[in-house]
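Title: Prediction job returns without error message
Component: structure pipeline
Severity: low
Priority: P3
Assignee: unassigned

Description:
Job completed but the reporter wants confirmation the result is attached to the right record. Sequence as submitted:
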Amino acid sequence: MKKYVLDLTVKSVERLHERYVLIKLTDEKPLPQMLPGQFVEVLVGGSPTTFLRRPISINFVDKEQNELWLLVATVGDGTRWMAQLQVGDRLNCMLPLGNGFSVDRSADAEGGPCDDANKVLLVGGGVGVAPLLYLGKCYQDKGIDVTFLLGARTRADLLLLDEFRKYGRVLVTTEDGSDGEKGFLTNHSVLQQEHFGLIQCCGPTPMMKAVARYAREKGMACEVSLENLMACGLGACLCCVEKVKKECKDVDDSPVAEASATNVCVCKEGPVFNIERLLWQN
């Protein structure tokens, strides 16, 4: 996809939580096409300690309002600067970057067509819920049933639940039991009661590894969005390298994974990967 560098206008900044803000951006021209799971690189100003752009997941694209939503966790000087933006400010963004989720559900646990029931489970923990909102909207547009399984430490840490409910069934876990089922995402009862044609996941790495292990054991297709440290967003700086199975072509020209491994840049070849290509389970 073609990449753009745009000075977008801040339309609103909403503080959802002491650590999270939702920034809505717009432009005079129609925003370029963006896919769920892709991200933007934001140029940070006014911070003497921040020299590189900051990668932020695309939270939502409202085509009718010509808005791009960014859900930002304020964890450092760069993101804290973003949280102080005011309506009317300009934010320089490079977008869209990376490869997103397979909305056509074309990959299963064996790498072939997915012929399961028309059900998708979207699993997110913490700020990892961000790319799942737009993903759910894209599935709804295709008439595909979506279940969101969202986890957080406490009820106060659950984000945008009302927005998620617009696009599918929402299930919740909290570590302290203040909302939904108590425990980790992988302990939710839905995982024992229902079968899904595809699981797509974003969040802390230990959580994604546990979801990937569950999906493999149950024979379900699974994609995860990696959160490796990314700087350039273009595969040039090699900050976000991940070791994956090497791919080749078999006799009928379809991709197969070799036993050998290779290094890829998550920002360019990901951030979304089919778990069968990752070496996590090894």
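Comment from assignee: result matches the submitted record. DSSP finds six helices and 15 strands in the chain.
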